[in-house]
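To whoever is on call:

I kicked off a structure prediction for a single chain this morning and the downstream step that reads the tokens threw a length-mismatch warning. I double-checked the sequence; it's 180 residues and nothing unusual in it as far as I can see. Pasting both halves so you can look.
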Amino acid sequence: MKNPCGGILHAALRGILFMLLVAGCIMTPGVYLKWSQVDTAAMMKSSAGTQKLNAVRFETYGPDAEQLFGYFLYKDGIEVVTGEGIPQKRLGKLTIGEAMEDYARAARARQFTSGSNLLVREIFRGDQVVGYTANDTNMDVSIWDITTDKDAKVVLRLVYRDLRKNDGGDRSRNMNPAGN
């Protein structure tokens, strides 16, 4: 026989966990960096598309059999941090095209059949482009400037969210990085 309070207890625990997560996100100092989506085909033909940048590949984790991949390509002199436990791999220097090739290669190696073409966005710090995100359309990726006065270089935090339906939720939930 099912425990009638089990569902309520489970929902309460998820609510408490969510509130702790929100509190952690709100306390994180930083400035959300603006972005602009780019025409990938046109970009790859330009000098920006052939520029080799530092690259990190990150991926979702959790209950889905197939995980989603994303990339952040960024200029020299920048340090990129992620939250604890985010699966990531530093790939050295890549162009946007090489990141797309790595994406296809990684998906084939894991025998993933879903996924999307990568959505490419340029990331601005002030009026300067500091890098590019390239990610599956089912990921919401944001970059935060967390540089402090004592840092010797620019420090950016990479944050992402898996937008696929899970646990009866919907794609529109938790779109704000602060959880609001």
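Update from on-call: the warning came from a stale cache, not from the record. Cleared it. Sanity check on the structure: The longest strand covers residues 154-162.
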